[in-house]
């Protein structure tokens, strides 16, 4: 059975509530609410996954306690409160550099919890929390200079017509050149399924989810795309296909993309995950639209009215209240300053001593600032990898990177 639409809502003062739009229902029902100071909405990411090996996709929260201390909570189906399944401990897991989803990565036939994790320096890893497990397991790691976490959006969908909801990543190569990668169930690496080519698809204008838009019986990848001028389109990547197909377009002035949040859920009780959009009307409230499977346009199912559900206080599955990338949490030093060419080739390093990643990054910034005039380095940030147009004509990045002493 397809999952129902869940919304985590911010009541303020660390008071969060869970609302669910039941399949076949006509309004959101409150399923749970914390006490004040109990659960800070801004510190949550949510996904539906089978973490307890219950055979059911249950609501999971990846929670930020601060200081690199992250926890995983689950709300068992029919339960009345969240249960903690795992906690990283201080300084060991950066919530801000985690993207949350659920997919069949290990070929278990289950939607297991996945985290795409940013180690910094375009070094990204994929972790899975096995159903019934007690800890995250690393399924893949890109290596330094090979995968920019902040240029990735992830969701689970059947892209390869495998009958499985496999982890997909929409990836930004820059210059409106976007690619789609799939991590096959039981595989060891991402595989490219499609690439737009330069000037053809703006990654930052895309929101992705998975749903059965074409009535194919498959959970296919969907992209809500912003053409500008309040002209929004819906694209679908058919299972087993080779490219996106347009399923709908609003026309200019008819649909504001930036006022939309997308998810796939069973809201009409048809047994399928249909594409849903939570839409912001501003002072006039929030509305829920659904694209019926096999249909050709969105239909409004519900609207809150003025002073009802505040759109900017809602969080849908795999959403994240905070979008700014932050540095990954690393063990205590020593660290290196490293430079890599755009193709990831190592070009040099300088070992430094530091008590923390932040200290190491500050030293990296200092080196760039002091040597910038002589070598043509240009710092473009404090926490993120620093882009450097180098004097020897290749583009490179420099950043603080953990190195264990042997």
Numbering strands along the chain, what is their spatial order in the largest sheet? 3-2-1-24
The tally of domains stands at 2
Considering DSSP H and I runs of 4 or more, what fraction of the residues is helical?
A: under 10%
Averaged pLDDT: 84
Report Rg. 22 Å
For the record, what CATH class of the largest domain applies?
Mainly Beta
CATH homologous superfamily descriptor of the largest domain: TolB, C-terminal domain
Q: Which regions are unreliable across 5 or more consecutive residues at pLDDT < 50?
A: 322-352, 370-406
Notes on the structure:
It is a single chain. This protein folds into two domains: 5-315, TolB, C-terminal domain (Neuraminidase); 335-402. It has 406 residues and is mostly beta strands. The chain has a four-stranded antiparallel beta sheet with strand order 3-2-1-24, with no helix packed on it. It has a four-stranded antiparallel beta sheet with strand order 4-5-6-7, with no helix packed on it. The radius of gyration is 22 Å and the shape is globular. It has one helix and 28 strands. Residues 322-352 and 370-406 have low confidence and may be disordered. The longest helix is centred in the C-terminal third of the chain and has 19 residues, at 357-375.
Key terms:
four-stranded antiparallel beta sheet, 28 strands, mainly beta, 2 domains, disordered C terminus, 406 residues, Neuraminidase
List the helices and strands and how they pair.
Layout (H helix, E strand, L loop, with lengths): L4 E6 L5 E6 L6 E6 L10 E6 L8 E9 L2 E7 L7 E5 L10 E6 L8 E7 L5 E6 L7 E5 L10 E6 L8 E7 L5 E6 L7 E5 L10 E6 L8 E7 L5 E6 L7 E5 L10 E6 L8 E7 L5 E6 L7 E5 L10 E2 L19 E7 L4 E7 L4 H19 L10 E4 L5 E8 L4
